[in-house]
Amino acid sequence: MNHLKSFLSLLGLAIILTSCNKGETDDTPVELNAGTLSGGPYTFVVDGIPDMVTTISLDASNLLGSNRTYVITDDSNNVLGIPLTLDAVRGVDFDEAGAGTCYIYHLIYENGLIGLEAGANLDNLEGLFDLSNFVMVQRDGLNAGTLSGGPYEFAVDGIPDMVSTITLDDSALTGDAQTYVITDDSENILGIPPTLEAVMGVDFDAAGVGSCYIFHLTYSGELSGLEGGQNLNDLSGNFALSNFVVVNRNPLNAGALSGGPYNFVVDGTPDMVSTIALDDSELNGAKQTYVITDDSKNILGIPPTLEAVMGVDFDDAGVGSCYIFHVTYTGELSGLTGGENLNNLSGNFALSNFVVVNRNPLHAGKISGGPFTFKVDGKPDMVSGIRLDDSKLNGSIQRWVITDDQNNILGLPPTLEVVEGVDFDEAGVGVCLIWHITYEEGLQGLSQGNNLLSGLEGFYAVSNSIRVTREAPH
Fold first, then answer.
1. pTM for this one?
2. Which of 34, 85, 87, 165 is most buried, most CB within 10 Å of its CB?
3. Radius of gyration of the chain (CA)
4. DSSP code at position 338
5. How far is residue 234's CA from residue 232's CA, in Å, rounded to a whole number?
6. Rounded distance between C-alpha atoms, residue 225 and residue 35, angstroms
7. 13 has a pLDDT exceeding 90
8. d(CA 341, CA 229)
């Protein structure tokens, strides 16, 4: 509407305030003839440069009617202006009207015509009148052409990435000046390469992770806002933008590991992760390897392949937790050595999720009952009601151990029934401790006289103890 108001004001022409409609009077029919217009159709580009219909003409040989004028409408016949003469029509700058379509008519009418005013519609004229044919004026917007190519998918890996196949269809291109514009995905201007060759020379890897849009831009006259850091939405002037081509700058992807979590017992028996797998459907990067860390991400090993990972004996690492990662990288990657921490890696790289390997200790269960207090009085004293909670019990071999209060082994009853058959009165005054032990083959030192807590070597675990106090009689 602003374009139309401006257009109307620039006509600078008188507007007929009286109005009328084609038809008959109550008396004798009047024959009117508005003549024939020639010229056009005209096609202009709205580019800030004046556009006039200098070759339009009227065949007035058969004109009939008392009053005459010209009428300019939009493509819905809404009246935009009413220039009185052909010279006035030829002086209209159609560029000011903006993009759209205008119709130019010659109008013959008798006094009393109603509805001939700007903003009204020709279809609503009332009175005696005749309209000529119309001449069409097509006002096209600037056309920046059509880009093809992409979308492009690049990995940000330190290796230059160029858009080598992008093209511009300029068959409908208009405008005095052209350039290309590269923006982020919010249309903030990142660069203004002047030619397609310059666009193809841009290294999108250097922009980091994100998305870029490539536009072709055409304009005429002054264009404000076309500079780095500005936004395309804030451009001001006569311009047009093409469609855009997308360049997605993706991070490195190390794939996805599956398997686990694994729970092993540190018992001297080799433990391998035989079912681990890598989904590499989105994997990228020039180099790959696997990394095994502790639960603080300190690097314990760097097996190069999945087969090497499956060959690792996690029992050798002792009690604790390991994390298995897959890593992908390009170029130099510093910090990828044993003893370093994954958080200190530096370079172009990506880590997968991790698979957990828990290396659990042997567990001798938990015993309950007691404590027991007996009098050394020559009467047998046995413990009863002792229970073993074996819900977490593991290990190949189990038995019971009775020690003194210094943890020196006094006896090795094989079962709880045997423990409850021991006569503690015979041991005399002092303290005994009852334990449960679990262990693997090859345990050394489990014999009477040795110390339970400091004299054993091998894979074993000891439960809590139950105290048996043997007091002297009063």
1. 0.66
2. 34
3. 48
4. T
5. 5
6. 49
7. no
8. 39
